[in-house]
Amino acid sequence: MKKLLFLAILFCIGFNANANNDKYRLTLRGNPATSIVIGWNQTSGSNPRVYFGTTDFGTNYSSYPNSAAPSRTSSYKGMNNNFVRLTGLTPNTAYYFVIRDSQGTSRRLWFKTAPSDNSRLSFIAGGDSRNNRTPRRNANLLVSKLKPHAVLFGGDMTDDDTNSQWQTWFNDWQLTIASDGRMFPIIAARGNHEDSNNSIYNLFDTPSSSVYYAITFGNNLVRTYTLNTEISISGNQTSWLRSDLANNSSTKWKIAQYHKPMRPHVRFKSEGNSQYSNWARTFYDNKVQLVVECDAHTVKTTWPVRPSTSSGSDEGFVRDNTNGTVYVGEGCWGAPLRSNDDNKDWTRNSGRFNQFKWIFVDENKIETRTIRVDNASSVGSVSNSNPFQIPSNLDVWSPSNGSVVTINRNTSGGGGSDNDNKTIEVAIASGNDDVEESEDGSMYINSSDLELVYDSHNNNGYQKIGLRFTNVNLPKNVTITSAYLQFNADESNSASAELEISLHDSSNSAAFSNSNNVSARNTFSAKTVWTPSSWSSGQNGSAQRSPNLKNMVQSLVNKSGWTSGNNLSFIIKGRGTSLTSTSAKRVADSYEGGSGKAARLIVSYTTGGDTTNPDICAGIAEWRSGVSYSAGDKVVYQGNLFLRTSTNDWEFLGACGTTANRSSEQNTINHPPIFSAENFEVSPNPFVNNIIISTKKMYFRAPIEITLFDMNGKVVFQKKQVIDDNVSQKITPNVKATGVYILHVKEGNEIIYKKKLIKK
């Protein structure tokens, strides 16, 4: 008996000699090809050091050629968190390490730095591991078997952010360590179940204590953006995001992750309106091709989408297969599953099961797969030399639209060659370049704000605003795909306002002065009317963004004298109530109010490639009425080409070379599909008995088919009728059951409008 007791004591002593640290983790702060952060919990002992090298010496710490002491320690959540930040490493190289302290040596672990060239990369992305340990541990085990270059984790690691829950979470995280001791870095975001930023910053040593940051992999192959939905989204965070995107425009791929989704696919979850107003357009304009969202505890992938508030949009997005952003998520790493009961018109697929995303990135495409995690124990492992081979028994979700969401560089988010799609961002660079001109023509160049347009100061009255952007690097004759002005709100204003934006018709706009003021400048004939929504002081989101100004910018770069690097000037003046009411205005920051808050011009353009207009091939018709043109003039309006062939006749260049004519005397109905979603408005929603379909801007008369489906795809109403411009049509579906229905409008065999309706 004494002998057994003695052996037990020896066992405990031996165990403690090697158990002086645990809860290992790898994180990233800089270039993943040359740096890594090794983190752990120091349970006992003193003076810990990491011993490391490119040769595996097992636990013989003295044989490793390099060592480093902790760069940072953090006593947090009942753990003594130590972080060693290693830099100057060799890319795409295995490094073996142990942790040695006064009481002993840890097990031997290892990691592999990321490649520095544009070799193919593998990521795992997900979140919400909260309180169901079985799926959480399954997902962790799959990390060890799929061996990604990094794990993007979207927050809500624990349920209540307590010490014991975090310690259990890190114990479970050890399952991500492969059987040979290989570890994989985590890029952590904050969720709403983390009580503060400190939980992420102190436990994962993130590059920013505000927990928003970016990491670039490869030779500018992909830049991952980690954002924080649990702090103010507008202001510093979004300003940083826009600046970083602009400064990294040459990066081939951009992927964002954050916790709360813009448009959750669970009905009772709140809409992410702040994320939408600040990030949706920013993602689209800066070609962020993939966004990973969490929080809702369901499964979704979307088609590529762009933000739009047109009548054909669904919750602020429309499908855009050419340049859209794909959104995936929504976090099922162990949190309670919820029903996917809020699909959108642009939802590709949705479901309800424990999962994460497995993402491959190379120079030509991104591939995203949804991985079910419940059978983790029976899944094989990929090899360290080929992490892209699908292992045995891996449960890849295969919905009707296919198991792989592929984003090609020539079809989505900046597709084509590197020279095809570019975005430039130019800010006001001097206090002399954002000016106010009073009603009497005098200039005011040093105000801390810009009154758009009434200003009581010095009796300026209803003034005109001039914005001059210098050194605008737009090549001559490129195709402008979008252009807009972005302001920062200096004051809160909510009264209805109406502003007119025009562009100085000059190949190189001169500086403003008393002799060359705002109102004396000739402008292009195209004008854009802006009726901005309410502004709140400090905002710089979609409400402070002008409508698309691409037509006038296109006219400028097509001028014979335009040269990249020249200057251009916009002019803003009031219309309607903005010239009759002193409260019908918006107030933006000027350069003097803070150079970082000054107005910015953001322009996207394409060069080379196929010049076929996609809107023409889709047969979308618009006619710019109320403007006189000479015979033979080509008129470009919202991407649609018209040719005036006689005094009264217009030729519509229809679907890929076919034509349809419209004259003032008659309508030709033998034409390709000419309607678009923007032609329709449907109300009310929710409806009780009747549905009103209103049409606008069509200029053709044609038969359509209206169909209403229930959520099982059953037709509950169908009607064919001829539809005219600016006419409201009332239909009475005579459906009794409350719930969600889908309205389709077809012209010929093509669905031209879809809308989700709710029956009360």
Q: What portion of residues belong to β-strands?
A: 25-35%
Unreliable stretches (pLDDT < 50, length at least 5) are 1-17, 411-420, 608-675, 697-701
* Strand-pairing-aware structural class: mainly beta
Radius of gyration: 30 Å
How many H/I helices? 8
Form type: globular
- Give a count of the beta strands, DSSP E runs of length 2 or more: 49
**Helicity level:** 10-25%
Calculate the mean pLDDT score and round it. Answer: 84
How far is it from the N-terminal to the C-terminal residue, by CA?
78 Å
What kind of sheet is the major sheet? 7 strands, mixed
List the SSEs and their pairings.
Elements: H1 2-18, E1 21-27, E2 36-42, E3 49-53, E4 66-68, E5 72-76, E6 79-86, E7 94-101, E8 104-105, E9 109-112, E10 121-126, H2 133-146, E11 150-153, H3 163-173, E12 186-188, H4 197-204, E13 213-217, E14 222-226, H5 236-247, E15 253-257, H6 273-285, E16 290-292, E17 299-302, E18 305-307, E19 317-319, E20 326-329, E21 347-351, E22 355-361, E23 365-372, E24 395-396, E25 404-408, E26 421-427, E27 434-437, E28 443-444, E29 449-452, E30 454-455, E31 461-462, E32 464-472, E33 479-486, E34 499-503, E35 528-530, H7 550-557, E36 566-574, E37 586-589, E38 600-606, H8 614-618, E39 634-637, E40 640-644, E41 650-653, E42 659-662, E43 680-683, E44 691-695, E45 702-710, E46 715-723, E47 728-731, E48 739-747, E49 750-759
Parallel strand pairs: 10-11, 11-12, 14-15, 15-16, 16-20
Antiparallel strand pairs: 1-2, 2-6, 3-4, 3-7, 5-6, 7-8, 7-9, 10-22, 13-14, 17-20, 17-21, 18-19, 22-23, 23-24, 23-25, 26-38, 27-28, 27-32, 29-37, 30-31, 32-36, 33-38, 34-35, 34-36, 39-40, 40-41, 41-42, 43-44, 44-47, 45-46, 45-48, 48-49
